[in-house]
Predict the 3D structure of the following.
Amino acid sequence: MKKQIIIGIFILISLFLYTQEKVGLALSGGGARALAHIGVLKVIDEYGLQIDYIAGTSTGAVIGGLYAIGYSGKEIENIFLELDWSDIFDESIPRADVYIGQKRWLPYANYFFDLDENYFPKLPISFISGNNLINFLFDLTHQSAHDFDDFQIPFRCVATNVLTGEKKVFASGALHEAMRASMSFPTVFLPFELDEQRYIDGGIVSNLPAEIVKEMGADFVIGIKTNSPLKNDADLKNLIDVLEQTVNINISENMKESQNYCDLTISPNLAEFELLDFTKKQEIIARGEKIARKYFTESRFPKRKNKRAKFTNSTQFKLSKIEIKGNNFLSTRKIKEYFKLTENSVYGKDEILLAIRKIYNSQLFSSIYPVVEFNEESILKLKAKEEKREKLGVNISINSDEGISTSLTLNLTNVIQKNSTLLLNTQVGNKSSFISDYVKNYGKHYGAYFRIFTDFSEQFIYSYENQEIDKRVKSFEVNANLGVGIFVSEAFILEGFGYAYNVNLYKDIATFEEREYHSAGIGIKAYHESLDDVTFPMRGAQMLFKFSTAKAGVFSEKGNRKSYSRIRMLLPFNEHISMEYKFEYGSYFENSNEDFDPFYVGGFDSFMNLNYAEMSAPIFKIHTIATRFCLQKKFFADLEIGFLSLGDVDFWQPEKFEYKSFGLKLGYKTILGPIRVGCGTDENFANVQYHFSIGFNFDPFEFSKR
């Protein structure tokens, strides 16, 4: 190693003392390991080394491209240190940003599959689409020149055409598109579509693009090599390791060839870092800086002749035209209505990105990003990839309340009619059901709608003695609703509905006479939600209200009036602590319907000191006060106290609460749903109930039902 460093220094001294040769820099890929390039660039800036050409692959293309347009090594370091890579990989839409029309349903799937023309699930091509990545790159590079030779340092980047296997060298176009194409690591990011071609990571064909730097005109090529060596058997521990090894087999061959074009190769010691070790970015950057100082010393290199111009990233421009590319089923007019920005108006890139985010939040696109073309006038192109109209959602949940539950949901968006959604859901578990929920909207952000809802469900109903299951009966219910309503932007949904249902109770582990009950009536319901998350919100509010009435006669055995409401409010003290208040209330007023349709109370998300649905009554109230702690970005803890009142007579005397509960909840948010554990006890700490939940275990059709 020392011998190589001495030879490298001798070559560099000769180069800069006795020649005027052009110097080129080739930056390899390597995932998180390629962040070592930043450390090398910092040293180059510090010592004033003149770089005349740059070419990069994958992460090296991103870092090299930023440096070529004018970012300093230190500025690039700040960008990557401040970047939370989970924001790039997590492409879920924050609950607070979901359109109110979509909030009719709570999350109903851990994972979605696209369907083929025969409605069979298709295996995914990648883990994520890369939508967050390309919009992040646009944020950094939006006003870059169309010709990469016009950058402060002429630049090239490499991608692999997955359709032909050929190398693609980007020398012009939108820089963020070229970077995104080069960084499409197979199976992690979706292959990037551009000009009817598909591109994956450039490392497949040229991970160290030294030959390209040479072709650009460099007389002396410095290669920065950050890829990993081939792993041995013990290091192949998971899917990512195997994928990386598969890619590296080919990379190892093309790296050997590329190194023949390098006059100097610098290889930081990165053996212990993995492909996705972005949490160790500071240490990786330091490794690059450390080895660069061994090769470059200030006294041996002349300063740059001209100081590099600082890259400015805050330009505003007048959009003379807005074009939509890639839409198939959605009209250009409708997309522009979602976008809201207008032609012949002046906008900055932050306003454009905010408008792009709002379109993405409509859940109609798997990817959408902007390209700005600067000629005599500014043209904004929105390049969109529509979300599949037919999707299959899969949800698996395990919890202490209802055991294991599995559900499949077929989502048909804009298939039956324009601006419509049909959900067909089947569930197997403690409760088995088949649900059909069809909604047709008249409007985008606000308007009217109608709903047709049916539900066939069978479940066990338990009776408890001393908090132990004593009896069990089986309930089979057929339910149908027809509703008409309005929705208003981010404010609320209001629906009037008619309903009819029939309930049969069967013997299971109990001795009683089997019975049947039917009812039909009308009702009204309303919903508002501004929570930032469904399971672990830190701010916002939620309100659900339902009222229905049925008159005794041909269609109803008994007349009744039923009301249910839930209010949930969270007040954040800071980003780590919030106070939550929840009030839940149900009443049949003066008429009891306890035998067939009572309110059930108890469980993880109801009253923690009780088993799931341990108590029932025609009237109940629950007040819950909790303090929520966000211990880390995805780890939460709750301390709560609950007050429960049950009865046959509706009353409002808060001093007469009959039960108290003290609870502790711990939760962790994963990409496949939340994981939660908790315990609740009474005021005497005499009885403790333990709870756990994996996945989404709430009813996604709560608002749809009567």
